[in-house]
Amino acid sequence: MLLVLGKGGVGRTTTCAAIAHGACAEGLRVLVVGLDGRPTLSAMTRGTDVTVRMVSAGSALEDYLLDQGFGGFAKRLASSGVIEVVGAAAPGIHDLVVLGKVKQFANEGRWDLIVVDAPAAGHASSMLTSVDGLLDIVEGGPIREQAIAVRDLLLNHDRAAAVMVTLAESTPVSESLELAEVTRSEVGVAIAAGVVSAVDPVRDLPSPDDIHGVRGAPVLRAVLERAAIDGAVVSASIERFQSGLGAPVALLPRLPVAGVTADEARLLGALLACGGVR
Amino acid sequence: MSRLDALLDGRSVVVCCGAGGVGKTTMSAAIGLAAARRGRRVVVVTVDPAKRLGEALGLKHGLGSDPERLELDGDLNPGLNGELWAMMLDPTVELERVIRSHAVRPGQADEALANPFTQSIGTALGGTQEYMATEVVHRLVHDDRFDLVVVDTPPSDRAMEVIEAPDVLVRFLDHQVFKLLMGTGGRAMRLLSAATQPLLRAVGRVIGTAVLDDVVDFLRSFTGMEASFRERAVTVRRLWRSDSTAFVVVTAPRPDTVAESGRFSDQLAAAGIDTDLVIANRCSPAMGVEAGADPWSPVALDADPVDRARALADWAARLYRAESDALAQLGDPLRIDRIPGDVHDLETLSVLADAIGT
């Protein structure tokens, strides 16, 4: 199981799709689990062998109640609003049942790889610490058993690891490194790799001085000058991420297209499979 | 009158929402700064657990859970005659503050704070942030030092939870299970063994009777405070929908983010809230180059410098076109070009305040 972690907007979902396509091309049976209910994941895997499942807190709690032998009572509980009360009284329970659902997929044995598209930074760590938080306050009963089972899976370095995603910008790199530290030290989940997504083609460019005597030279020079400013930030950010993460880092390019489709995600997956771009 | 002037006119609260990674926090700070330049006494409060606001404001020591006044440079901020304050919501501190200031009998606050549930609720468990956001907004709106509160929310889904927290709390306080728990004498175990209430037994089976015990103790330690909790929640619920509150949706020009921003505005509308302004942050600048019509393909790194420069210009033009097409779905957003590098101090923040104010 790979937990793909990163703040919103850093390309976490695209990275999930790329990993899934890359693994699928190697012949693995791959499941991607989306936790934020957004349709992009399905669009990036449509018409391929990658399976996608969406898990929401409400549906996971209902499933959990069914598994606990509540039967039709689960429905009644849901409709009576008790679930809302339970969630309001013990907020970490939602996080736990979501992770519990993922654990269930992992134990089914139908997939070789489960890729989890985990929510944004600050909350991803609260989601993971919720398990420990619940263990502190719950002394017995089904919730405690569930929390222990989820923790055992997350902390098993042979079965579960995290992939940290960032953009090649200063703040996202800092946040991703902070999140990696929390994930590794406080939660105890192993870090398998890092991915810098949407890398602009602004590094190792020719000098503006090399552009002369051609049509549109002033515009081309302006484009190169602007790219050089961006390129410095991109290079510095990538270097800082590589030296700070303590795990291999792959780079994925930004594609100048309106929305990543399944074809493009497959291309990114193939790139990832051979180590990403330079 | 600029679009920002129209936004601020007659407003005492501006709520900044949007998808993750769009620069919401930086934009909240820039709106705060732009308002301070217009003579407003502004406090920017971040509800997002990320520590971005302190960085955007150039604070080396980070932000505290009490409003701190920022020193603004008159040269960078022409005509400045307002004030800019900032703070970060700390759910643990806020929960303690709320309990201490609303306890109805001596010793109640200490009892409530000693409960193991209270102790872990502020730190380990998600969800508390949202309830405490209601409390902090209520407190700041009634603080005479300020005439404008800028709220920086967590990313989309969580923002909706912040906005709906007062409704959830009111529903919770009005719920039969809550009333049952509060209204019956004795500890939960006794209550459960005697309970003929299948609903309550079910709750006990789900979360375990020991937890239910703690929950009951936790809730009971608040006895007598429910009315004031409810009252503040109702005030904030009303405040979100009043004319004196403006909602700003910050978006990035990326297609999936634009789609998410559109869905978020729909969610706001469903909750009875209008989006007053959409700001498209960090747009690619127009470089005056036409994008190619054929499918895009990368260029080799060892190609001729001129070919590489042309390929880069074409790439930038394609990006600009993809962004413009996407943004058209949000009507007419206020478009702000990406500032090269990172916004990390008040100087770069003032550049952004210039851009949104014109």
Explain what this protein looks like in three dimensions.
The complex is a heterodimer of chains A (278) and B (358). With 278 residues, chain A is an alpha/beta fold. Chain A has helices spanning 12-25, 40-45, 57-70, 73-80, 82-89, 92-108, 121-137, 142-155, 170-187, 217-245, 262-273, and strands at residues 2-5, 30-34, 51-54, 113-117, 161-167, 190-199, 249-253. Chain A has a single domain (2-202, 246-273), classed as 3-Layer(aba) Sandwich (Rossmann fold), CATH 3.40.50.300. Chain A contains 11 helices and 7 strands. Chain A has a 7-stranded parallel beta sheet, with helices on both faces. In chain A, helix 3 packs across helix 6 (92-108), helix 6 (92-108) crosses helix 8 and helix 9 (170-187) runs parallel beside helix 10. The radius of gyration of chain A is 21 Å and the shape is elongated. The mean pLDDT of chain A is 84. The model of chain B is unreliable at 185-190 and 192-196 (pLDDT under 50). Chain B has one domain: Rossmann fold. Chain B is globular, with a radius of gyration of 24 Å. Chain B has helices at 3-8, 24-37, 52-56, 91-102, 108-114, 116-123, 128-141, 156-174, 176-183, 188-194, 198-207, 209-220, 226-240, 255-270, 305-327, 346-357, and strands at residues 13-18, 41-46, 68-69, 83-88, 148-152, 245-251, 277-283, 334-337. The chains are: A alpha/beta (278), B alpha/beta (358). Chains A and B meet through helix 3, helix 4, helix 5, helix 6 and helix 7 of A and helix 6, helix 8, helix 11, helix 12 and helix 14 of B.
Write down the overall mean pLDDT of chain B: 83
Order of strands, widest sheet of chain A:
3-2-4-1-5-6-7
Spatial extent as radius of gyration of chain B:
24 Å
* CATH architectural arrangement of chain A: 3-Layer(aba) Sandwich
Kindly provide the radius of gyration of chain A, computed on alpha-carbon positions and rounded to a whole number of angstroms: 21 Å
The biggest sheet of chain A amounts to: 7 strands, parallel
The sequence of SSEs of chain A as H and E is EHEHEHHHHEHHEHEHEH
Mean pLDDT of chain A: 84
Helix-strand pattern of chain B, N to C?
Answer: HEHEHEEHHHHEHHHHHHEHEHEH
Overall structural class of chain B, as computed from helix and strand content, comes to alpha/beta
The oligomeric state is heterodimer
CATH fold-type name of chain B: Rossmann fold
